[in-house]
Amino acid sequence: MPEDNKLLYYINKWTSISEADEAKILSAFEPISIKKRKDLLVSGQVCNYLYFITTGCLRSSYIDSKGAEHVYQIRMDNNWIGDIDSYFTRQNSKYTIEALEDSNLLRISVDRLEQLFVEIPNLERYFRILFQKAYINALNRLSATMWETAIDRYNEMLKEHPEIFQRVPLVHIASYLGITPESLSRIRRQV
Predict the structure, then answer these.
(1) The domain spanning residue 23 has which CATH number?
(2) From edge to edge, which strands make up the β-sheet containing 79-81?
(3) Can you give the C-alpha Rg of the chain in angstroms?
(4) CA 77 to mean position of chain CA atoms
(5) Which residues, other chains included, contact 133 with Cβ-Cβ below 8 Å and sequence gap of 6+?
(6) Is residue 155 part of a domain?
(7) CA angle 190-161-8, nearest 5°?
């Protein structure tokens, strides 16, 4: 499937878009590529684009006041990545987004997205559903770190995204799960 068709496929999963509107959407997105270990966004910059990952794997992370890195997101093929807060508020991001693999993306600026929302109401519906799901996932992740054991969080990740363990360094997975790499190694031996 061509890369821009992947974006349309996922939009059409949750709403209905006409062929004319599909052409408008595709013309609004810019295809870009990023090499492994390169930064898409650096902490302290404004996130000017929202990105749809057609192929590849990226992570967003931040450095706390003690200098420790925390992985906030790991996203792979056919997912979105960006700092939504910075994107819409135009404030500096606290996150860095790094490519973990050579990746191909489609990006859109906030002004262009807002223009599409006016022109294509069903696209606004798609993003409303997308943002609702992202909010619910964030709440579930927060609850999991507070109430579930590390083994439960690991098993859930293994069930939902088994491919992540072949594509992402274990140190990043451990950070995402909120545990040390040593704890992740122990859990993997137990399971």
Answers:
(1) 2.60.120.10
(2) 30-34, 103-109, 49-55, 79-81
(3) 17
(4) 10
(5) none
(6) no
(7) 180
CA distance 57 to 173: 13
Domain containing 13: what range? 3-116
Sign of CA pseudo-dihedral 106, 112, 113, 117: negative
Looking at the predicted structure, is the pLDDT value of residue 102 above 60?
A: yes
**Is the Cβ–Cβ distance between 80 and 133 less than 8 Å?**
no
Q: Which amino acid, 150? A: A
Distance CA 53, CA 56 (A): 7
pLDDT digits (tens, 9 = 90+) for 83-93: 999 999 999 99
Residue 164: inside a domain, yes or no? no
Could you give the number of structural domains in the chain?
A: 1
Is residue 152 one of the residues assigned to a domain? no
Rounded distance, CA 103 to CA 186, Å?
Answer: 31
Q: What is the pTM of this model?
A: 0.90
The reply to whether 190 falls in a domain is no
